[in-house]
Amino acid sequence: MALAARFSARQASGRAILELWAPAEQLPEVNARIVGPIEPVRSFLPD
């Protein structure tokens, strides 16, 4: 099973923004599996 499949998607600050929420105790495993740099592809700034 993919790591991301373990976590639920929750609505963030807007209706169209979903985030995967990982329990704090699992963050070390999540961080250890990140390969390469994280590249932002879009940003959502306040109006």
Low-confidence stretches: none
End-to-end Cα distance: 39 Å
**Portion in strands:** 15-25%
Percent range of helical residues: 10-25%
Number of strands: 2
Structural class based on helices, strands and sheet pairing: alpha+beta
> Strand-and-helix sequence, N→C?
EEH
**What would the average pLDDT be, to the nearest integer?**
87
Query: Please, how many helices?
Result: 1
Global morphology: globular
Give the strand line-up of the largest sheet. Answer: 1-2
Radius of gyration: 13 Å
Q: How is the biggest beta sheet arranged?
A: 2 strands, antiparallel
Brief overview:
The protein has one helix at residues 27-32; strands at 8-11, 18-21.
Describe this structure as you would to a colleague:
A hairpin with a 6-residue loop joins strand 1 (8-11) and strand 2 (18-21). The chain has one helix at residues 27-32, and strands at residues 8-11, 18-21. The protein has 47 residues and is an alpha+beta fold. The mean pLDDT is 87. The protein has 1 helix and 2 strands, in the order E-E-H. The longest helix is centred in the middle third of the chain and has 6 residues, at 27-32. The chain has a two-stranded antiparallel ribbon with strand order 1-2. The radius of gyration is 13 Å and the shape is globular.
